[in-house]
Amino acid sequence: MHRMEQRVLGRTGREVSVVGLGTWQLGADWGDVAEADATDVLDAAVESGVTFFDTADVYGDGRSEQLIGRYLKERPDAGVFVATKMGRRAEQLPENYVLDNFRTWNDRSRANLGVDTLDLVQLHCPPSAVFASDEVFDALDTLVAEQRIAAYGVSVETCAQALTAIARPGVASVQIILNPFRLKPLDEVLPAARAAGVGVIARVPLASGLLTGKYTKDTVFAADDHRSFNRHGEAFDQGETFSGVDFETGLAAAAEFAALAPAGATPAATALRWIVQQDGVSSVIPGARSRAQAKGNAAAAALPALSPETLAAVRDLYDRRIRASVHDRW
Predict the structure, then answer these.
(1) Taking Cα atoms as reference points, which of 298, 259, 238, 243 lies closest to residue 52?
(2) What is the pLDDT of residues 114-171, one digit of tens each?
């Protein structure tokens, strides 16, 4: 297996690969992925040096967790750290974030993944009031004390939520949308996380595929793909789809971004390299639907650092094309 750069994931104290694997697409909302293809993706990632998988209990109603659990049972030597999420199995009301529900959701995830103790459990983009609740974090501490989970973190939609969570002494990591079309976390979240010793997991790194440069105005996504049904936040937060960027605006910006890719690097790999290069990022978690995509994503970790000129060009592109439409919203 290839050896990839490892970084400590915040207060977990554990090392993970700088490029991980997001597995939402292996469960649902990205079109159908056959089990054999999903196993191929997991295998290709591990072969490429990936030691970090991110999943959630609601991805395919547990299918993603189950696929990972079965795979790692067959590959106990893989050395993969698995982060899952909980909270989306109930109506999104603060009063549902209580210890009894946590235990129920936790039992299900442990069964799906085939483990007694989960490496990391993240609250799955809960309502903002949850981050201000001492009782919620006391309940998470209880799960650690009961050895159901080794550590806990949060997945957030906004920078304000991230900053509130980082101030909590037990929060090990924060997962947030970060990519060349979403720069706002660079201003406050990454510096605050570095100062507190909290890990940062960068999600939606390719802006739902926009940053690959392969889509056009004529691209048609499957009906069960969130890029068809959630462009305006119809099913969940709009930021999860194309990073909240209008599709046509995103296409124009993606074409400019592709031109910034260094010789021999794809636009996707360039976007991932840009994220890995941000001070404070622990791991970036692109998804993949094929062996080739998984290997291509992992290869970004070995790219040379982007030049100061390229970094400045990314900032300029964001300021001209993206900032006005999304920066203040998120």
Answers:
(1) 298
(2) 999 999 999 999 999 999 999 999 999 999 999 999 999 999 999 999 999 999 999 9
Distance CA 254, CA 104 (A): 42
pTM of the model: 0.94
CA dihedral sign, ordered 143, 148, 150, 154: negative
Gap between the Cα atoms of 150 and 47, Å rounded:
26
What are the phi and psi torsion angles at 60 (to 5°)? Answer: 65, 30
CA–CA gap between residue 29 and residue 229 (Å, rounded) = 9
Q: What angle do CA 202, 306, 294 make, to 5 degrees?
A: 50
Q: pLDDT digits over 28-80, tens only?
A: 765 678 889 999 999 999 999 999 999 999 999 999 999 999 999 999 999 99
Give residue 30's pLDDT.
54
Helix (H) or strand (E) run with residue 174 in it:
strand 171-177
Q: What percent of the chain has pLDDT over 70?
A: 97
Give, in order, the Cα–Cα distances in Å from 106 to each of 92, 146, 161, 278: 17, 11, 23, 32
Tell which wins on pLDDT, 323 or 1.
323
The torsion angles phi and psi of 303, rounded to 5 degrees, stand at -65, 150
How distant, in Å, are the alpha carbons of 119, 156, 252, 268, 276 from that of 318?
35, 21, 12, 16, 18
The CA distance from 245 to 174, in Å, is 22
Residue with tokens 């973190």: 153
Residue 216 exposed, middle or buried by CB count within 10 Å (0-12, 13-18, 19+): exposed
